[in-house]
Specification:
It contains ten helices and ten strands. It has 276 residues and is an alpha/beta fold. The strands form two sheets. An eight-stranded parallel beta sheet has the order 8-7-6-5-4-3-10-9. A two-stranded antiparallel ribbon has the order 1-2. β1 and β2 form a beta hairpin. Bound molecules: 6-hydroxymethylpterin-diphosphate. 6-hydroxymethylpterin-diphosphate binds next to β3 and β7.
Length: 276
């Protein structure tokens, strides 16, 4: 059976899974400030597991458009105590960071997936992950969070994102990260207009055709606000619809804030499609 190797965890690639978002930040765009206290963050982690998260993605730096970078010591202070308490449980812990020092500390604290919006392009990032048995998620981003929404431009967004992801997967494999440890992600909202995001979602199956498991993160994002006219606090239905559309087009994992609602939608999808 096809599986993703994620430290000692094995995640089946046979059915779609949910990555639950746990932002230990004061300023994330949709849940900033809710889980900055270690106990609250850990409790939220257990809640997301109960609701059906197959992975918990812990982040200590908001990467929303225009966000200013967080000092390294502060990012470490936010995430490491939470990882220490949640690691080793029923589901793997993912560290959402683009900083090598944070990857290293998180892996030492028990994280077994490195989710990097910068696709391990920082010096030392590939080697840091290759030295472990952790899985990696390589995401496409045009520009940096500070400037990425200023004027995103592509001649062919699907082709360019696909080419970038293929090149990063090859770089990861060349560095010694086995193919069964690699996830790719088109990076919805990271240097993309509403039209770019919709084109990517519409054409997700062409990215899935590359053969690597795909992660899609549309949860509560501004593209859904643009389509529905809803504020960030009122995008659950739009997010569930987007997650389902992503799965229907070949996404293996969806990164979501609203785990229970997404799990119900995927259960219905699975009941109808899973038997085929
Ligand atoms: N989106 C966000 C953060 N990390 N990682 C992957 N692989 N894919 C994504 O689409 C993705 C991601 C942004 O969402 P969120 O964490 O809720 O917000 P913020 O960056 O403000 O903390």
């Amino acid at each position: 059976m096809a599986e993703l190797h994620c430290g000692s965890y094995r995640l089946s690639l046979e059915r779609p899974l949910i990555m639950g978002v746990l932002n230990v930040t004061p300023d994330s765009f949709s849940d900033g400030g809710l889980f900055t206290d270690v106990d609250r963050a850990v409790a939220r982690g257990f809640q997301l597991m109960e609701e059906g998260a197959a992975v918990l993605d812990i982040g200590g730096e908001s990467t929303r458009p225009g966000a200013t970078p967080v000092p390294l010591q502060e990012e470490l202070r936010r995430v490491i105590p939470v990882i220490e308490q949640l690691a080793g449980g029923p589901v793997p812990i993912s560290i959402d960071t683009r900083h090598v020092e944070v990857m290293q500390a998180a892996l030492a604290a028990g994280a077994t997936l490195v989710n990097d919006i910068n696709a391990l392009r920082a010096p030392g990032a590939l080697a840091c992950c290759a030295a472990t048995d952790a899985a990696v998620c390589l995401m496409h981003m045009q520009g940096t969070p500070a400037t990425m929404q200023d004027d995103p431009h592509y001649d062919d967004v699907l082709q360019e994102v696909g080419q970038f992801l293929k090149a990063r997967a090859e770089a990861a494999e060349a560095a010694g990260i086995a193919r069964n440890r690699i996830i790719l992600d088109p990076g919805f909202g990271f240097g993309k207009t509403v039209a770019h995001n919709l084109t990517l979602l519409r054409g997700l199956d062409t990215l899935a055709a590359a053969g690597y498991p795909l992660l899609a993160g549309l949860s509560r994002k501004s593209v859904l606000g643009a389509v529905t006219g809803r504020a960030v606090t009122d995008r659950v239905s739009g997010s569930v619809a987007a997650a389902l559309l992503a799965v229907m087009r070949g996404a293996w994992m969806v990164r979501v804030h609203d785990v229970a609602a997404t799990a119900s939608a995927l259960a219905v999808w699975q009941a109808v499609e899973g038997g085929q």
